[in-house]
Amino acid sequence: MKDVFARLGSDLFSAIVFLVVYLVTDNVILATSVAVAGAIAQVIYARIKGQQLNYMTYASLALVVGLGAITLLTNDPRFMMAKPSIAHFAIGAIMLKRGWMLRYMPPMVVETVPEYVTAAGYAWAVLMFVIGAGMIVVASTGDLKLWAFYLTVVAGGAKILAFAVQYVVLRLIVTSRRRAAARA
After folding, report:
1. CA distance linking residue 137 with residue 147, whole number of Å
2. Each residue of 25-49: pLDDT tens digit?
3. What pTM value is reported for the model?
4. What is the domain extent for residue 32?
5. What secondary structure letter does DSSP report for 106?
6. Cα gap 164→44, rounded to integer Å
7. Could you write out the three-class secondary structure of 115-183?
8. Do residues 167 and 151 both lie within one domain?
9. CA-CA distance, 21 to 44, in Å (whole number)?
10. Residues 122, 85: one domain?
11. Which residues contact 61 (CB under 8 A, 6 or more apart)?
């Protein structure tokens, strides 16, 4: 389980850095700059250590650098509020890659129910698209408090709930299949 969180933390490193710096400083430019620098440093560090970088890492880097550059150029609060929807759509599109979630699963799950993991990956893609669409609707209101609530409570809560449901469902299915195999 620690390995899964380590991989997720690595994939979401720049987003976490952005959020922390923004919450501490309330400075979009500084938070964006630090997040972009952090994403680039993370890739350089991994390359120096000889770690193999996957599709998600490069896609994340491209998103951070591209969206970060647009943020730095426009400094538009409406764009800032809509920007997470672009990231959600892009991540959703990346999640449409068959089997992307397999790297986050323990070997027992991958060996027992890879088809369910693939289906869960597609469900996560749909969730990202729905959250992204909601983000656009909320950003169009221009209400920063509503946007912050949606971003943290609604979007964050939906992801936590989806993770919990996925965990329980996969655990039940794996347990059931392993018991059936032991009986056979």
Report:
1. 9
2. 888 788 888 988 998 998 899 889 9
3. 0.66
4. 1-75
5. -
6. 33
7. HHHHHHHHHHHHHHHHHHHHHHHHHHHCCHHHHHHHHHHHHHHHHHHHHHHHHHHHHHHHHHHHHHHHH
8. yes
9. 21
10. yes
11. 14, 39, 40, 42, 43
